[in-house]
Amino acid sequence: MWIPTEHEKYGVVLVSFRGTVQHGLPLEIGDTVQILEKCEGWFRGFILKNPNIKGIFPSSYIHLKNAHVKNKGQFETVIPVEDSVITEMTSTLRDWGAMWKQLYVKNEGDLFHRLWHVMNEILDLRRQVLVGHLTHDRMRDVKQHITARLDWGNEQLCLDLVPRREFSMVDPDEISVTELYRLMEHRHRKKETSAPASTHHLFVHVKSLMSTNLGEELEVFFHIYDGRENRPLSERFFVKLNKSGLPKSPEKTERQCTLFVDLGSSDLRKDVYIVVHIIRIGRMGAGEKKNLCSVQYRRPFGCAVVSIADLLTADSKDDHLLKVYACNTESEWYQIHENIIKKANSRYNLSGSNTGLAVALQLLHGDIEQLRREYMVLFTRGVSITRKLGFSDVIMPGEMRNDLYITLEKGEFEKGGKSVARNVEITVYVLDIDGQILKSHVAAGSGEPGGDEYHSLVLYHNNSPRWAEQIKLPIPVDMFRGSHVRFEFRHCSTKDKGEKKLFGYSFVPLMQEDGRTLPDGTHELIIHKCEENTSLADCSRYLKQPFTKANLPSNNQTLKGTKESFWITSFLCSTKLTQNGDMLDLLKWRAHPERINDSLSKLKEIDGSEIVKFLQDTLDTLFGILDESSQRYGLKVFDSLVHIINLLQDSKFQHFKPVMDTYIESHFAGALSYRDLIKVLKWYVDRIVDAEHQDHIQQVLKASEYIFKYIIQSRRLFSLATGGQNEEEFRVCIHELFMSIRFFLSQENKSTSPVAQTQAVFLRTFPAVYGELLKIFTVREVAGFVRETLGTLPTAVHADCLEAVKLQCIAKTVESQLYINPESRCILLPVVLRILQAHMQEQRDLVMCARILTSMLSLIKKEENGTVEPVVSEEVELIVESLLGVLLRTILEISNRPQPAGPAMRLQFQDVTGEFVACLLALLRQMSDRHYQQLLQAFNSKDNLRDFLLQIFTVFRILIRPEMFPKDWTVMRLVTNNVIITTVLYLSDALRKNFLNDKFDYKVWDSYFYLSVIFINQPCLQLESFSPSKRKKILEKYGDMRVMMGCEIFSMWQNLGEHKLNFIPAMIGPFLEVTLVPQPDLRNVMIPIFHDMMDWEQRRSGNFKQVEAKLIDKLDSLMSEGKGDETYRELFNSIIPLFGPYPSLLKKIERETWRESGISLIATVTRLMERLLDYRDCMKLGEVDGKKIGCTVSLLNFYKTELNKEEMYIRYIHKLYDLHLKAQNYTEASYTLLLYDELLEWSDRPLREFLNYPMQSEWQRKEYLHLTIVQNFDRGKCWENGIILCRELADQYESYYDYRNLSKMRMMEASLYDKIMDQQRLEPEFFRVGFYGKKFPFFLRNKEFVCRGHDYERLEAFQQRMLNEFPHAIAMQHVNQPDQTIYQADAQYLQIYAVTPIPESQDVLQRDGVPDNIKSFYKFNHIWRFRYDRPFHKGTKDKENEFKSLWVERTTLTLVQSLPGISRWFEVEKRELVEVSPLENAIEVIENKNLQLRTLITQCQSRQMQNINPLTMCLNGVIDAAVNGGLARYQEAFFVKDYIMNHPEDGEKIGRLRELMFEQAHILEYGLAVHEKFVPQDMRPLHKKLVDQFHLMKSSLGIQEFPAYVRASPVHFTNGSPRTCRNSVPNIISPDGGRGVARRSYPAVNRYSSSSLSSQASNEVSNITGQSESSDEVFNMQPSPSTSSLSSNHSASPNVTSSAPSSARGSPQMAEKHKHSRENACLSPRERPVSAIFPNPLDPAQRAPSHQIGDTTLPRSDPNLSAPDKVRPTPSSWSLDSVKEGPPSFSDSFGKLLCPPVPPRPPYSGSSAKNMRSQSPVTSRSPQKTTVPPFTPSPTECQSTSLVSNSPVLSGSYSSGISSLSRCSVSEASGTELPAGDHPSHPLPPPTTLPNSVSSSSDEPIRRENKTPPPYSVYERNNPRRPVPLPHSLSIPPQTDPPALPPKPHQLRTGSMKLDGTSDPRVPRPRPLPRKVSQL
User: Fold this and answer.
1) What pLDDT, on a 0 to 100 scale, did the predictor assign at position 1651?
2) Distances from the Cα of 692 to the Cαs of 262, 350, 646, 698, in angstroms?
């Protein structure tokens, strides 16, 4: 039986459990579980990270832990009872674990490894804490280390900042908001800027000396040297090196490492150096022989110098190799370091090229204790401390030091009878009072222990040596008296076995008889002669002699006259001994009473360090004098006391304040002193107002804190001694003193007056007195003193400095113990609030105001149960009444103020804002129902309440701003939101009660809703984006605040009633934003509001167009910001059925209409959302450009066709344009920009600034767009389209007489013509792609597209690209249409195969003489239709002759737009399937082959070919195949009696096939004749073979003579095809020459050859497919580039399919197994019959013209015209516009441009307006000459007699700043517009100038005329796809006559040509009317 657990509530999983039993819960090691029930060894519960899934698990798998249970019962929560640091560590490591793996995935290796190390470190530390064996101090250190690591990791992973107090996380509910803010701020600042350390230390580690000439031991001395003052700053560090240059004691690190401590910041200068002196120990001369002398001398070796500033920049870890220099002369040794610093090169040189001292140098920062913690290893391993000379910047009271430093400066010695100068060595001893040598008290420096003596270095043969050696004598204080230092001088002879002979001595006592020590400074000592060591044994004998020349008696001339002297410099650094006589006189005042006055006066002149040494003694002295003679010395003692107290304010001595405090508490004994102190203090205060000089009084008041301490302690001592006598008298004295203080404080003065400054001084120290007064007076009494004193301060103070000080005083008061006591707080609060309110109202000293307010509110706390004490409640009431309004105003003021410039000021500015915000939140959190009621009742008028609500809502909006707090302050943001929502719930009642019905106030309600919306949309409340653990914590603590606010919005909305209309449509956008939050409950609450809005809008205006428009606009902007998801779309869609179940929402009358329009709206919005979601997903980083472009096109079309949203449409045009530019799709970019250009007219209407366009006229913008488009067409090599736009611009310039730009435009046009003829263009492949399955984005799902491939891209490459773009897609291996299972599958299927384009412009392609450069454009541009052929056998297959049953299944795909267009791919709109019979197939094959032969022959004749190989190969392929049975197979199949009998309907076709076969034979004969003329000698045998085989072929066909019609016209080239020009004059071309067109690309010719003959017999095709240009590659067949496994249902081996040599592929004897390979090859577009390009050669009477055929399948001609009216243009015409009979549509005349061959323009015949021009009759070609081009209208000149528009339409207001999509001028002079875009990277140049260069890539705008390219393609205009009527509102009455322009120059020209029905060309062109619209 399952029993609820009592104690077993929480545990950790020890062993993983799979959960294989029934109801089992799978567990992983380390999971934490909450246990609900238990039963016989099993627990039931859940894992804490996933509480929704509950199950059972074995109890033995769980380690139970103690836990505290909250809310016992169904919703209980468990909190483990363990150290909070451990809890935090555990949860943080779990969060990090998941993120750590993600770092690996994201390839952030560096952070991955660093985090891994930190996580391991934290786990180790956690183990230590859990074991619990650490000492208290160690535990503290470990926790500090853990929290530091946790914070580091959180910061690196961008997690939240954790507020902590003493390493533990703080619960924000348990402390006030102000306190929380301070903790966060402190942690943030700590993280942000660490305060620069004021103390620095230099770590030195000596490694070795590297030198070639070693061999002796060395001594190395380091010290820090001030180059500015030329003095050492530190004592010396001393290291001994052995003969190898390595440290002598490597095991003792303290002998090679040191720390130069207590360097101040001022010491880190460039002129402070580390100086190293190196002394060698050995022979006198470095090169002397070893056996000459055994005595060791200390001799100079070298010196090195490095600047400390270099260490600040260098990498501290690097070792430094210091160069060692030696001096040129030994006499310079004492100043070698100075010479090196000054770079006096002549005085020193390198001691050796390889000599260098290797040392590690590192600067460390912080106090020494901090270093001990941070560099523990350093101190435990051992490091010597090297001190500064003198005290550090801050002297610590407990510091004990007694060091005497003596520097051996120089000596003057006589020769002593020697012929050469002496080698002098000094030996130094310290002797005590008894004459005994003090052991170990002579130190050469730190690092080595002290010795008994010290030997100076020896300078060779020098009677005036200068050593400059510093030694340290650490003599204990008690041994100082009577001790002396003795210096013995010896001559070191290099002869006589190196004996050192004594010749004199000097000495100096360390202390004088009066107790003063040896004064600091240089002393000239007397050298006493002495040659025997024994005479020095008794020191008492020589101590009586004088020791220095300064104190020699005047009569001692013998010693004065001697030249021998010795100079030393002494410096004492002692905390116990003094050299000051005045100090000693004061301390011994009883011995000399007469000197007291003098000594007290001199106290101020004594150095502070001397006073603090003897602080207690000095104070005892002063109070002793006061007790004995207070009348006489009272004032002087008081002044001295003030001097000492103020001395301790100095930063150097501030640490001695505790010493004085201890003295007052424990040692002070002046029980009577208080009377004198009060009396003198009052005397000074009374004199303040009248005194002229206030300096001394200010010093007194500065010391008032300690004076009060002495007064109070003295009184307490007196009370203890006397049992509390004279209490009343004391109180009266204090009251009088405070009356005097209040009087002087109440004086009003100007800020410059001395009294005001004195007032400021007092106010600074006054708060420090409170604590002392509390020792004697009660809390209320002291509070009374303070209140009255602060209350006397003048309110209107002119002194700014005093105002600031007054606030500081208030701040210290609020922070004092006095204010913390609730009893005194109620007395002080009114005064504090009064002063604070005054300052905040005037916006002065806000930083200090914030500090005060923060301190005040930190003290107010609710009890645990949520109640508030009555006292606290009253305080809150007072603060709310005084400060809430002013606090709100202050926050508003400082938030709107511009931020200050300096970083420090900005920091302060942010601090003060944050503090005020924290104060406001703290105050609001403390307010209860009663407070809110009182607050709202206090407003005496509605206006005041309204202003308050507006103010508080605005402030809340400011608090929600992301920049309010740093981004990782989530804790603070959540507290803020909790306070806001609580307050809003209170205030919403006030809103309902006071501002509804007749008192409705829109502004307040609007502010309320706006606040609610941005509250819900805050990033910090979007719980879905947080980790599960963080989400769980927030939900447990605060719930989902978004849902609470959403319910409140709904409730308030329901209360509005008819006032809802005020918020429609304004609130649609904000509410929509709320519904996009992915929180189901919130959405369910908010979406019904939209029902309501529609309902009310329907009531008001009968529709809800406003709602719809606003909804769509907002949806776009919100989706692009990344909001919304699929669930939301489904939810929004579900509104539709809601109309049914809730009829109460709608009035019955309007239910039907409501429902329909409502459903329509929701459907539209849902479809828009589908596209927007796709768009957003595609635009994510990393997505491929193709997907982005496709998605943008889909969305753009939706805005245009379904929504009529002009501005959105134009925005997406430019987004698409930018995508194309990025992908270098320049042609597509041009077409895209044309969409915008098309919306504009050539008018002067002003347009507002929009996107990257400046404010300009519509004409200028259109001109700029034209130029940009031309530039991009040029870059995309689509020059024909650019020419049309150039002409349009040129017409505009001409109409404005802008000949400068006209000239440039004509040159640009000419340059484009040149490029057409001179530059090579690549011919693209086209591919059909099917996207099947539900996993594709909406705009692709279950649709098929045709895509234009990239340059050089073939099928395999394209297929791979598509699979890369859709990595989850499956490639389908067949070309059949998929079934429904594929369509509905939850997967992605791609079906890809190559297709062949069917060009529209047959007349250009079939015309003779048109160069290939021009034809190639028409073959692959403006293609609507594409074809795909699949061969198959119908019926039984004849193995002998496959052609009998070989049918072709031909699929024709028609697109929605022509390619190229605004995208590289367009959707297939229509799919047609026809079957081509074997006979028709044969006709097509032979037709294509004939055309190919003609082309090659023509090229050969006109000598366009570099060599004749292509022709040779083609002839060989056809003739050879024929001999082997090629054409014979057709004869067998179709010319037999059986076939003719069975297919009587094919008689004509059989005749046509026979005709073509004869024609082929004739062409071959003609080709052989041409071939013979040009064939090179080495290919003659092949030619002969071909001629022989041709005769065989003729005979096999049974041809003896050609029919008459064939002979009459051997080769027809008039229009490139024999069938289209049989009735025209033949163009007979002889083998000797003729007209031809250059053609370079042979494969282009072969592109349209067919491989649809799937048997061996079609050798004429297969032998020429895949030919390369080079003759070397003739027989090296390449596989068809478009053949792919995706596009075939056959499985022939590749080598058979596409790589077989011609002999194999053409051989009729080919094995059966290879026969089907031809079928596989049929899928290649290059080898496919293209009958649409080369129509079957039927007579014109029997065959419809090709255009008519096209028009039967696609409605691209005017739908208003009947079929007979649709006249095909003359084939030889250059016209770009089909001439229509009857009135053409508007878009036909203006909106369409046919594929232009772009010939030379005809001369103008009159007005440049769009006139109907006549076409001249076609001139028949002469056999030998080229034809003259006919006069035809310009490709851009459109024909118009009607003003009806068929162009696509979009709505848009004139004032929107973008031209209406549908607007098109309907006067004769106007046209539709072009789409456009702005190249984002180019600024817009001035619109009226043209570049001087002729280059068409110019960016500069040129104006252009009303010519209207189409919406998507320049050439679509002849074939309108979807006619859309022009909206009535935008149509312009045709009868409007625009004003005329003056005649143009070319209107005078003659030769006008026009058609019937056109206006007179001489009528002047009317100028477009500017529309009356607002300035945009």
Assistant:
1) 33
2) 44, 68, 22, 12
- Residues 1764-1804 have pLDDT tens digits of 343 333 333 333 333 333 443 333 433 333 344 443 444 43
Number of residues that this document lists for the chain: 1976
Q: Which SS3 state, helix, strand or coil, does residue 760 take? A: helix
Has residue 1434 got a pLDDT over 70? yes
Give the type of residue at 1570. Answer: V
SS3 of residue 819 by DSSP: helix
**H or E element in which residue 87 lies:** helix 84-105
CB contact burial 1360-1373 (16+ within 10 A = b; e otherwise): ebbeeebeebbbbe
For range 1083-1096, the mean pLDDT: 80
Residue 1340 has, within 13 A of its CA and on its CB side, a CA count of: 30
Q: Please report the pLDDT score of residue 949 as a whole number.
A: 92
Token pair in block for residue 422: 């002496």
For residue 677, which of 648, 646, 715, 647 has the smallest C-alpha distance? 715
Distance between start and end Cα atoms, the chain? 81
pLDDT tens digits for range 773-789: 888 888 888 888 888 88
> Could you tell me which residues come within 8 angstroms of residue 72 by beta carbon, excluding any fewer than 6 positions away?
none
- The amino acid that residue 1449 corresponds to is E
Residue 223: phi, psi to the nearest 5? -155, 160
Q: Is the pLDDT higher at 872 or at 1738?
A: 872
Smallest CA-to-CA distance from 879 within 825, 951, 806, 947 is with 825
Report the half-sphere exposure of 231 (CA within 13 A, side-chain side).
Answer: 9
* Residue 1412 to residue 1318: CA distance in whole angstroms: 11
Q: What is the mean pLDDT of the chain?
A: 74
- For the chain, helix (H) and strand (E) counts, in that order, are 66, 40
Of the candidates 1268, 1263, 1271, 1215, the one whose C-alpha atom is nearest the C-alpha of residue 1240 is 1263
By the 8 A CB rule, do 27 and 19 touch?
yes
Is residue 1244 very low, low, confident or very high in pLDDT (cuts 50, 70, 90)?
very high
As beta bridge partners, residue 278 has: 220, 302
The token duo for 925 is 């959190």
- What pLDDT score was predicted for residue 142? 86
Helices 1028-1038 & 84-105 angle (0-180, nearest 10): 140
Tell me the torsion sign for CA atoms 897, 903, 909, 915: positive
Q: 1206-1222 vs 1185-1198: helix axis angle to the nearest 10?
A: 160
Nearest to 584, CA basis, from 611, 609, 604, 624: 611
All residues at 6 or more sequence positions from 276 whose CB lies less than 8 Å from its CB, including other chains: 220, 221, 222, 303, 304, 305, 322, 324, 357, 359
pLDDT by residue (tens digit) across 1346-1384? 999 988 889 999 999 999 888 899 999 888 889 999 999
Angle at 1617 between CA 1614 and CA 1618, to 5 degrees: 85
The amino acid present at 1704, given as its one-letter code, is A
CA torsion 992→994→998→1000, rounded to 10°?
-70
Comparing C-alpha atoms, which of 1167, 1218, 1166 is closest to residue 1192?
1218
Question: In Å, what is the CA distance from 1114 to each residue of 1106, 1191, 1208, 1280, 1400?
Answer: 12, 19, 11, 41, 43
Distance of CA 100 to the CA centre of its chain: 21
Q: Which residue type occupies 1333?
A: G
Structure confidence at residue 1375 (pLDDT): 87
- The predicted pLDDT at position 743 comes to 86
Helix-helix angle 1526-1534:1547-1574, to 10 degrees: 170
Q: How far apart are CA 1186 and CA 1222, in angstroms?
A: 11
Q: Whose CA is closest to 1246, among 1235, 1260, 1233? A: 1260
Strand bridging mode 257-264 / 384-386: parallel
Distance between CA atoms of 490 and 505, rounded to whole angstroms? Answer: 9
